[in-house]
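[Automated response] Your request has been received and processed.

Submitted sequence:
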Amino acid sequence: MTPEQHKYAARALVEAESTGRQIGLLSVAFPDIGMDDAYAIQDQMVAAKVAAGDPVLGWKIGLTSRAMQQALNIDIPDSGVLTRSMLFDTGATIPAGRFIQPRIEAEIAFVMKSDIGGADVSREDVLAATDYVAPSFEILDTRILRTDPATGQTRKVFDTIADNAANAGVVLGQQRQTPDNLRWVGAIVSVNGTVEETGLGAGVLNDPVESVVWLARRMAIYGNSIRAGQVILSGSFIRPIECPPGTGIQADFGAFGSVSLDFA
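Generated structure:
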């Protein structure tokens, strides 16, 4: 893809988000799209949001489970950018029409107290740079159709990454915890009072801390780094849960805390 095509795709995604009308698969419109193209489009999309007064809040890491990687035939996670307008309080009600096809994932969020970056970032570096961790939801949405109506082709990883890794929102629980033994931190996720999913932090690259290590090292390739005060969503340990209107969703992390959200 050319730089102009990257800009065109990013503009289309920004418009889709503002209008609620999805665009077609980029992998169909641009069959030669690759990973670098997808991240270039994401960068352009985020730059447009920042220029419109929506500053960067942090980062999300996705595709951290083996099952999701195998389903998409990749062997690495992906990442997207959180912006300020994506932050919601736990217990909030999302207005009708705010998202197109929202889904929820339960995650452990890291809030950083110092900058961290470089190709040799270690687990110890991440722990030292972390202010606290908290229970959280990631709100996923898609500005791109999930399936091409003409060919039946489903979204490829390039479509998802270009679409800011399907990122649309973050909900932080009120509890603040130290990043200890996160492999054993689990959640029971209920929808309208019925348990739908359970999971453990070990589902995220065997330890959510390793997810943040991966992000810092990947960012170093592009001359970027994680900044103090940023929120990092380390990756989901449950499958995405569809949240149509009228959905009330809660994640009980036990002693670690809780997080909840309603969709009008």
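Summary generated for your ticket: The chain has a mean pLDDT of 94. Helices lie at 3-19, 26-29, 35-51, 66-71, 123-129, 157-162, 208-221.
If you did not submit this request, please reply to this message.
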